[in-house]
Amino acid sequence: MDWLISAIGGAVVVIILRDVFHTLWHPTRHGGLSRLVMTTLWRLSSRGRRKRRAAGVAGPLGMALVVAMWALGVAVGWAVMYWPHMPEAFVFSSALEPTEHSQPVDALYVSLVIVGTLGLGDIAPAAEWLRVVAPLEALVGLALLTATVSWVLGVFPALARRRTLALRICHLRRAGVADEQLDCDTGATVLDALAADIARVSVDFAQYPESYYFYDGTGDTSLARSIGYAAELAERMGRAKHPGARIASSVLGAALDDLASVLDERFLRTGKTRPEILGVYARDHGGGM
Asked: What are the extents of the domains in the chain?
């Protein structure tokens, strides 16, 4: 029975590590548990009168909750492994009575000390197998800390690229560029650069899906609000006389199709056409098209 309980704890650890792997290191997947946390928080924040203000903290708060879930899940899983083998498989300091410090809370304490690499030493593993398993928990704790820092450092540059793209589209819109001004080599270059930026954002959404749940507001840095103008440019320049401009508009249209596909497959799941998908994306982020 003791080993069955320990096996349950090991299963909890495996589930958490699988979620960490798919969220942080698999380029086209999103962990099931982390996705559930992020989507639930996003939907809750999008309700009510203060939905815009609440949506603004959904992304950062969601990431914090996911990291807390991972850390607590690992600690609890290892604690469940330790508990059935206390006190006989552990050594205690002279100030502690082993039979009085062998409860589940004590197992959780030991697990937290090990995963946090605190090394307090008042309760330490003595059994041979625990002297192997416990350092593994410490290594997992260090890996989780490093992975979390890498996650944050990856998500926020992705957000900066998305907001920069939105601002660039707004600049084009405010400039009131006419069709004849884009119907040339320079116009083709502008459209090509815009398509490249949209493709980069599509990759960001695929690689860092949690970035979707960061609200950009309704200003010029909101891609949900501005992406419709990029689609309008692609349609307008599809009738250009300059062959380079027509090719660039086709590339821009393809980039928009890819963006809509990523948004629909990973977040919206509407099964609709590109204009409809972009419209749903705009409404989901509080922007109109």
From this structure: 2-147, 156-284
